[in-house]
């Protein structure tokens, strides 16, 4: 078993004449929190979609857990162990919080249609297991008190955390968070940082795509910086912060108000 | 005076209306389920119902060997034997209708979604070869042989086309639905032993009065239909609300892309949805033959249109709406016929739909399979 959970090897992605990713090479190591940052239009989302098999790279190789994801369907990729959350929350609005998480947990269950219809013991056991797992995850995320409420009636912060709980329910090896702190207050961001660390400590590998620099700097082990589809820097938060290319491309000129 | 007819026969009309409405409701569930997950009106669903009525007929005559008449009398059965016969017919209808619905989805719709599989390729290849054979041969047997020989290479060609994974535009699904509907109807009309004539089904249940309600005789077959429909409806709601697959169905209905990312096998969920709709239509078909003792190649058409109306009336995509829509429609038809005369029966159904949609564009209970849980 290699140290790298996911590897991008000289990946290029072109849409017509536009090169969205240009010879991108980096890896996500097992058990780390990797930040993927870059200005708007740098190719973060494309990179993400190539990693999760939504797009097939024009050239280069993507290896997850040592194997290519090419040709797999989305649900199969999830079963291989990649889970994600969305920048704009995408819960099942009319299901309860716990049901949302159970949909994720269902991916690992095997009862047949007949089994469910006949109410076989295995079906009941898996339903109970799914419910327990879901409840544990809701507790872990600190939102168990609203487990029975429809997802659309939950407060914003709960919805964000519910999305993470649901992604964890698929038992992923790699959890991808797409701007999980969007719309959060500073206090909520601190809570989220603690949560992300806790998730990592449970043995998950986390990929964090984020705009908020304080969050990225505070929680990640390593950072990959993209600009115009190229990797311009890789390293620890402090290394990246001091990198002149990054400062120029991403952090921009120092703030006048500062 | 017709006006008096409705007063004298009000309760009779109510009971038969609810029974007829229950049959509409069960068929309407198939339209509503498929619409909920695919946003597709499966116009071939009426043929799934028709297949169910024939399955019931075949089970009774060919499998159980029941005659149409016994010494000039209907072959009435009683007690345990009757229950077994009815259950066997129900099972036959449900299995054949369910299988038919699944085959329909895999051959007529799935290839259009860009995920066609071997089954679809083989069915389509056989049909293609068979139709080409019609040009050269004039006996069904030689056609069949030509069809079987042609299946292999044509299926291989189709599979290669499927592999491109192209998604067809929305209208293509509608055309496919109408085509499949016509193909199934005509196949039964052309190759059925009685061609386009009506078929009688053996009348094993003596339609006795079970009890009296407000001075009206309540017949046993109507009671069976109403209770049967309620049981099936309850089973369906439990399945959708309480099981893993039901949760998958609701997840796909609410957001397909997110469901995929959470590991839901969407093609499988769609298959299950068609299966559930088919099984419900099969149950409806068996009960239909129980009340009307007949079937015909085009029996699904008007009933299908009415059931679709019921689904829209209740709010398409809404399971409870299908039940309500079916019963409202059944009652309206019966009361309407008594008021205006039987020839207006079908007109009333559609006028009712128009009026309801004017005031409640999403139907009585509103659209959404997603909100099935209350």
UniProtKB/TrEMBL annotation, chain A:
All copies of domain ABC transporter, residue ranges: 6-253
UniProt keyword list: ATP-binding, Nucleotide-binding, Transport
SUPFAM superfamilies, per the entry: P-loop containing nucleoside triphosphate hydrolases (SSF52540)
GO MF term list: ATP binding; ATP hydrolysis activity; L-isoleucine transmembrane transporter activity; L-phenylalanine transmembrane transporter activity; L-valine transmembrane transporter activity
One Pfam family this sequence matches: ABC_tran
One GO cellular component, as annotated: plasma membrane
Entry-linked Gene3D superfamilies: P-loop containing nucleotide triphosphate hydrolases (3.40.50.300)
Keyword presence, Transport: yes
Protein name: Unannotated protein
Biological source species: freshwater metagenome
UniProtKB/TrEMBL annotation, chain B:
GO MF terms, alphabetically ordered: L-isoleucine transmembrane transporter activity; L-leucine transmembrane transporter activity; L-phenylalanine transmembrane transporter activity; L-valine transmembrane transporter activity
Bilayer topology: Multi-pass membrane protein
One GO term describing the cellular component: plasma membrane
Keyword terms of this UniProt record: Amino-acid transport, Cell inner membrane, Cell membrane, Membrane, Transmembrane, Transmembrane helix, Transport
Pfam families noted in UniProt: BPD_transp_2
InterPro entries: ABC_transp_permease (IPR001851), BCAA_transport_permease (IPR052157)
Residue ranges of the TM segments: 20-41, 48-68, 80-104, 116-137, 143-159, 171-192, 220-240, 268-291, 347-366
Biological process, per Gene Ontology: D-alanine transmembrane transport; L-alanine transport; L-isoleucine import across plasma membrane
Record localization: Cell membrane
Family as reported in the entry's similarity comment: Belongs to the binding-protein-dependent transport system permease family. LivHM subfamily.
Protein name: Unannotated protein
Organism: freshwater metagenome
């Amino acid at each position: 078993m290699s140290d790298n959970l996911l590897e991008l090897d000289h990946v290029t992605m072109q849409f017509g004449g536009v090169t969205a990713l240009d010879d991108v090479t980096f890896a996500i190591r097992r058990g780390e929190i990797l930040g993927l940052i870059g200005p708007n239009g740098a190719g973060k989302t494309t990179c993400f979609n190539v990693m999760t098999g939504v797009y097939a790279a024009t050239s280069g190789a993507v290896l997850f857990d040592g194997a290519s994801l090419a040709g797999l369907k989305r649900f199969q990729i999830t079963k291989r162990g990649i889970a994600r959350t969305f920048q704009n929350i995408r819960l099942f609005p009319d299901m309860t919080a716990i049901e949302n998480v159970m949909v994720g947990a269902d991916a690992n269950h095997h009862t047949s249609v007949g089994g469910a219809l006949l109410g076989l013991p295995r079906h009941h056991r898996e339903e109970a297991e799914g419910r327990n797992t879901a409840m544990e995850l809701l507790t872990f995320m600190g939102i168990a008190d609203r487990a029975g409420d429809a997802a659309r009636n939950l407060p914003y912060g709960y919805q964000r955390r519910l999305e993470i709980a649901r992604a964890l329910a698929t038992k992923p090896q790699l959890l991808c968070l797409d701007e999980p702190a969007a719309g959060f207050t500073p206090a909520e961001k601190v809570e989220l940082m603690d949560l992300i660390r806790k998730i990592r400590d449970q043995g998950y590998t986390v990929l964090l795509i984020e705009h908020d620099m304080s969050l990225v700097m505070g929680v990640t082990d390593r950072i990959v910086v993209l600009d115009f589809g190229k990797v311009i820097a890789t390293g620890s938060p402090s290394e990246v912060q001091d990198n002149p290319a990054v400062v120029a491309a991403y952090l921009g000129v120092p703030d006048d108000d500062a | 005076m017709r006006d008096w007819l409705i007063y004298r026969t009000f309760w009779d009309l109510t009971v038969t209306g609810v029974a007829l409405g229950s049959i509409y409701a069960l068929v309407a569930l198939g339209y509503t389920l498929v619409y909920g997950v695919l946003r597709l009106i499966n116009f071939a669903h009426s043929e799934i119902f028709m297949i169910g009525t024939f399955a019931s007929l075949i089970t009774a005559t060919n499998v159980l060997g029941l005659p149409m008449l016994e010494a000039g009398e209907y072959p009435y059965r009683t007690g345990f034997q009757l229950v077994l016969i009815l259950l066997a017919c129900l099972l036959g209808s449900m299995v054949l209708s369910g299988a038919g619905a699944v085959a329909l989805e895999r051959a007529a719709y799935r290839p259009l979604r860009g995920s066609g599989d071997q089954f679809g390729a083989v069915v389509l290849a056989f049909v293609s070869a068979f139709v080409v054979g019609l040009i050269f041969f004039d006996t069904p047997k030689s056609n069949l042989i030509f069809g079987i020989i042609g299946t292999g290479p044509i299926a291989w060609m189709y599979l290669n086309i499927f592999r491109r994974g192209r998604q067809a535009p929305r209208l293509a699904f509608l055309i496919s639905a109408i085509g499949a509907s016509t193909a199934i109807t005509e196949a039964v009309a052309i190759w059925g032993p009685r061609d386009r004539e009506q078929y009688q089904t053996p009348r094993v249940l003596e339609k006795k009065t079970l009890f009296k309600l407000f001075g009206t005789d309540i017949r046993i077959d109507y009671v069976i239909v109403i209770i049967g429909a309620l049981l099936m409806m309850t089973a369906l709601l439990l399945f959708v609300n309480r099981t893993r697959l039901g949760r998958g169905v609701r997840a796909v209905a609410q957001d397909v892309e997110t469901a995929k990312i959470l590991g839901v096998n969407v093609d499988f969920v769609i298959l299950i949805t068609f299966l559930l709709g088919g099984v419900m239509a099969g149950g409806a078909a068996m009960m239909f033959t129980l009340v009307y003792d007949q079937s015909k190649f085009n029996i699904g058409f008007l009933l299908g249109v009415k059931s679709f109306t019921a689904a829209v009336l209740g709010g398409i995509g809404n399971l409870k709406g299908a039940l309500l829509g079916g019963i409202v429609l059944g009652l309206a038809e019966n009361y309407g016929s008594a008021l205006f005369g039987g020839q207006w029966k079908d007109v009333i159904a559609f006028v009712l739909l128009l009026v309801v949609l004017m005031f409640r564009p999403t139907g009585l209970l509103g659209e959404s399979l997603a909100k099935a849980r209350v």
